[in-house]
Design goal:
Low-confidence stretches: none
Bound molecules: 1-deoxynojirimycin
Strand order of the largest sheet: 9-8-7-3-2-1-11-10
Structural class: alpha/beta
Number of helices: 15
Largest sheet: 8 strands, parallel
Oligomer: single chain
């Protein structure tokens, strides 16, 4: 337990910088804004902030298209503001984790501009270039690879008379990780930020870094939707998850491990369908990441059985020595308060707060989830996300989960004195951090209380976890144990009361409903609708 690194014990809080806090009135969040609101995070009790990309970017994909890896986007501040943020975090015991977007850069990055100009220049092979199908100077995509964001994955560049590949937008050309100079360049980028005090990276779609060296077409599948959206009409055998991923990952692991306490967490594209592969990327091996994400739970429907299945699947895939990550919401999916919410949204938000903080593994919170922020998709004319623009109304994009943080009462909920870049959720006058801070039954208080419980509980940080073989239909239950100490978690996920036999754990460590005695009696526990209990065999 003593040697458990902070990124296993702790809680990571994701900030989407455009939407967290605007300090200069331009309607877009910035680094000074984050500094101004750090006390909220210290009070919440999280251990680290992960910033979605902060580097210069034309914002075709809002920062996930970086045009200079070693600088700060002027709209967010400067390298000096970044240094001030790191210092302000340290004062509060918070660490800083950055998004590493290294599968692709922006097409406006100097590397790509140079690569596009010249087939023979020093950066000619830094991206995935190929002649057209008919040969040099001919058109026709080199293979059938598709873009995750719709359409084909190849774009013709007249300057080079060749095609380049992009897994996402055509403004996001994929880097060629088989070119050793690219590996060296990314190593330089990692070092640049680590030397400025960064303590970890979340790696964007890292399993796409390496492609099959000969770029063969992927086999097609019989999915009629593939006609409209070619990406899902094929098996992705050759455009990701290659056996020699170690080319990239061993460099990253080596650099990260030069100092204890640093970590890498990978976002595996499409891993919710292939969580065994995702699990294989995380571990203590030389070419593994420290952690990998899994979104199986996030994608589950509400219910004790469905959650049980998702938790089992991920933990079993990781194995007894593996370490899970738990994500309920992020910047790519509808917020869970709306996904699982309905009439009981706040009660459900409180239950999953307990869940995230008491499962074995590292929880990643998404800004606003601590106040139960709801999804709010703007009208079509105001959509900003390229995915929403392209696929409306089939997919209305990701703006709905990126609306400004709701801080307090007032015109823009304290987010900005200007015009916010996305419209706020109309419920902000009632739902905001200030209003919830002093209310012991609020979502915010629940998060703060269960994070504090996790902080003082070695069992919750490091203990083993046992889920019953046969899940209960309404109550999600599991037991954590470490030495003689044990904790039982009971989450009544239904709107009806449920009976539960009392076990060895009778001390109330946390409960969602007021009025429970500090020590429970023998016999049965009658759980109220949507009641959550954390019980210990020792007082907490
Ligand atoms: C995954 C990120 O989470 C998403 O927001 C982004 O659009 C794509 N990768 C491309 O970088």
């Amino acid at each position: 337990m003593g040697d458990l690194p902070w990124w296993k014990r702790g809680v990571v809080y994701q900030i989407y910088p455009r939407s967290f806090m605007d300090s200069d009135g331009d309607g877009i969040g910035d680094l000074q804004g984050i500094i101004d609101r750090l006390d909220h995070l210290a009070d919440l009790g999280v251990d680290a902030i992960w910033l979605s990309p902060i580097q210069p970017s034309p914002d075709a994909d809002f920062g996930y298209d970086i045009s200079d890896y070693c600088d700060v986007h002027p709209q967010y501040g400067s390298l000096e503001t970044f240094d001030a943020l790191v210092a302000a975090c340290r004062e509060r015991g918070l660490r800083v984790v950055l998004d590493g977007v290294f599968n692709h850069s922006s097409d406006e990055h100097a590397w790509f501009q140079e690569s596009r100009q010249d087939r023979a220049g020093p950066k000619a092979d830094w991206y995935l270039w190929r002649d057209g199908r008919g040969g040099p100077g001919q058109t026709g995509a080199p293979n059938n690879w598709a873009s995750t964001f719709g359409g084909g994955g190849w774009e013709y560049a007249p300057e080079r008379q060749q095609y380049f590949f992009h897994s996402f937008l055509k403004k996001q050309p994929d880097l060629n990780w088989r070119e050793p100079a690219v590996v060296d360049a990314i190593e330089g980028v990692l070092r640049f930020w680590l030397e400025r005090g960064v303590e970890g990276f979340r790696l964007d779609v890292f399993n796409c870094y390496l492609k099959h060296p000969e770029l063969p077409s992927n086999p097609r599948t019989w999915n009629p939707a593939g006609l409209l959206y070619p990406y899902i009409g094929q098996r992705h055998l050759h455009d990701r998850d290659q056996d020699d991923m170690g080319i990239a990952l061993s460099m990253m692991r080596r650099v990260a491990d030069e100092r204890p306490g640093r970590f890498l967490v990978g976002e595996t594209l499409d891993e919710d369908r292939r969580y065994r592969e995702a699990a294989g990327y995380a571990g203590s091996g030389e070419d593994q990441l420290h952690l990998a994400f899994n979104f199986h739970l996030l994608r589950s429907r509400w219910g004790a059985k469905a959650f049980h299945t998702a938790i089992m699947a991920w933990t079993q895939a990781l194995g007894p020595d593996g370490w899970a990550t738990w994500v309920l919401s992020n910047h790519d999916f509808p917020r869970h308060a709306s996904r699982w919410g309905g009439r009981w949204a706040d009660a459900r938000c409180r239950l999953v707060a307990i869940l995230a903080m008491t499962l074995r593994g590292t929880p990643f919170l998404y800004y606003g989830e601590e106040i139960g922020m709801r999804e709010h998709t703007p009208p079509r004319a105001q959509i900003q996300d390229p995915v929403g623009k392209r696929f409306w109304p089939v997919h209305r994009g990701r703006d709905g989960c990126r609306t400004p943080m709701q801080w307090e009462e007032g015109a823009s909920a304290g987010f900005t004195s200007g015009q916010p870049w996305l419209p706020l959720h109309p419920d902000h006058a009632g739902r905001n951090a200030a209003a919830q801070r002093g209310d012991p039954g609020s979502v915010l208080s629940t998060y703060r209380d269960v994070i504090a419980l996790r902080r003082r509980s070695p069992v919750l940080q490091a203990g083993d976890m046992d889920l019953p073989e046969q899940p209960h239909a309404k109550v999600l239950s599991y037991r954590r144990s470490l030495g003689d100490a044990s904790v039982q978690v009971l989450l009544n996920m239904s709107p009806q009361p449920q009976r539960w036999p009392a076990g060895a754990e009778r001390h109330l460590l946390y409960g969602t409903h007021p009025g429970r005695p500090a020590e429970l009696e023998d016999g049965e526990i009658l759980l109220a609708p949507h009641e959550g209990l954390v019980l210990g065999n020792e007082p907490g």
